[in-house]
Amino acid sequence: xxxxxxxxxxxxxxxxxxxxxxxxxxxxxxxxxxxxxxxxxxxxxxxxxxxxxxxxxxxxxxxxxxxxxxxxxxxxxxxxxxxxxxxxxxxxxxxxxxxxxxxxx
Length: 105
Description:
83% of the residues lie in helices and 0% in strands.
């Protein structure tokens, strides 16, 4: 169950990062509320996952899902550039996540 909590926590990290961008520095109410709620939910699920998963693994996977997901959302919805170097960087992040999961068994 810890891995499921961690996965959802990572997805919520993407939500709060996107809504934080949409809040324009917390000057827009609805995206600001979504940011705060998603942050609290993400941190809570991360904490639950850390009950059984090692700190380094849980934190790396959580931030990796958030970083890779935010990259994808930025490209798809915000018009951010999709260059070979950025793709390589995202691929390296994802490779690290897979290796970390495999190392845990």
